[in-house]
Amino acid sequence: MEKITFTVDIAMPIGRVYEMMTTLGGLRSWYSRDITGDPKKGGELKLGFGPDQATHVAITDYRMNKMITWTVLRSTFSKDASEFPTTIRIDFAESPSRGTLVSFTQSGWNEITEFYRITGYQWEKALQSLKLVCETGRGEPLTHSVATSRKATGWFPVS
Fold it and tell me: Is residue 41 part of a domain?
């Protein structure tokens, strides 16, 4: 099975980073302005990227300030039902700099596909935006053009 992984060191306490990833306001500040749904365990989110472009996730588990697990149910970016579900797990730990180390994994891919590549690129950009909003107060939520881009730039470095 294939997986996408990133690790990001963010200069902000764990509780605040966790909040940015578990509330609608927090998610909208760095991921996409077009997010609807219930971010609590058992809820479902629609992560929108413009007209008729969205990914749907179920919030399957969380442990406050420790981890979050989402199940990706479907996405308009892939019409191939065999690419679903995948599992996103985000772990939080104190970094050596006393900030937050965010470890992201999306697993469950049967093979590397175009959708896998697009998803990796989207998460790279999104986690850069999370770091920006946490450290500067201003994120760069994904837009339709970023979400549909097919050009990846490489993996996000730990800073």
Answer: yes
